[in-house]
Design goal:
Radius of gyration: 24 Å
Number of domains: 2
Structural class: mainly alpha
Strand content: under 5%
Helix content: over 70%
Number of helices: 18
Distance between the termini: 15 Å
Order of helices and strands: HHHHHHHHHHHHHHHHHH
Shape: globular
Number of strands: 0
Amino acid sequence: MSFTSLSFLLFITLFSAGFLALARTRAFTPFLLVASYIFYGYWDYRFCGLLALSTFIDFYCGLKIADASDRRTKKLFLFISLGANLGMLFFFKYYNFFADSAEVALATLGVEVGRRTLDILLPVGISFYTFQNLSYGIDLYTGELKAPERSLVRYASFVAFFPQLVAGPIVRARDLLPQIQQRPRDVPFHERFAGLEKVIWGYFLKIGLADNAAVVVDARFHQPEFFNAVQHVIGLVCFSLQIYGDFAGYSLIAIGLAQIFGYHMCDNFARPYFATGMRDFWRRWHISLSTWFRDYLYVPMGGSRTRWLRIRNVVITMLVSGLWHGANWTFLLWGALHGALMLAEDGVRWLARHSPLRPTGMALAAGRLVMVGLVFAVVTLAWLPFRADNLHTVWTILSIIGQGIAHGDLGLSHGNQQASSLVRVAITGLIVLTVDALIERGAGRRYAGVNVVARSLACSALILVMLLFGSFANHAFIYFQF
């Protein structure tokens, strides 16, 4: 069930009525669990069986890990949890990718093995709830989580919590489980209103910015040969805006809905296109995933204890991050590019530390502005393999851009397709970047102190702009495929 569908409007209306009737009773947690499974099963009821199986395995293994008297038993049940979760994820998401890759590799050696792929339907959100389950078992094993959840209903409600189930944020058990255990509290009006503001801003990012940009982007990636260099550059910039509006929009809607009902979840985005470096970008983009990889992969492998460990662990972490996003060589290329950019930044930082020059004042401010533009440019270019269906499309678009630059063909020779959508992207994108820039300079704290009437007028103006310039084609959220 998509947040932008009419079915969700009906769902959230009924859920709100149930919340008001049951929030103070023991029946609320079962109600939340049933509602979350209805929300998830709307795509395909068969997905619910896999979600329930994964939930039960980790609930049982969590109890065994917590109650075991020796480390060997703890490790056994941790491996069962890891094996079950990663096994299901591999089968549904990666089996065909590795089978195809092996088939191609063997064919180049002259060995014909026949087609070994399966007709597998990828369950929506499996990467998100798998990582959520994994962190629960690992935290119990390491002691980060002091006690297991002994109610299956409460644990299942934590895993299936509908606002963030399909596309995050990836919430840790130590953050959300205590909130589910104590049932909803009385939520002050200002908190509910702040949650509603997040929801409205999330819808603006999705409907106003991302879905308009999708029209421009889809045309260029569907028939890349039809467009010239400038049009592909415009398309890549639009995809940068699309994926930010799409995913940050979903996260804000999820976080805002949870806040309205009294639950608090971690922020998932912090104005990533104002980053001044690749490290800074990953502190701002998909924060719940980047911190998950930091805590459960990068640090356990040794982190940055030595220079060579840093190089190895950055490469492995970014390649795994790319593979997490999708079973395709394009995602591995995207991860490799980000790994290379982070290591290149390490080199630049080393040179800067040993440089006698220390910019101050205006030079420092100008340098920061240049770095923001440079990071946006390289991140935008790196989005190319992320969006492309295959490596051939990546090469085609890069070739067109390269030839256009080499021959000076930088005009709009084929006309300006999707002009209406481009105007809408320009208007909504300018609003989004202006708001982000103001928040980056501290305006968010001042805005929070403004009276509710003025904030209501600001929300109403945002809704009006969304109605005038938004796209209501109901494009699926990009991260549903992950």
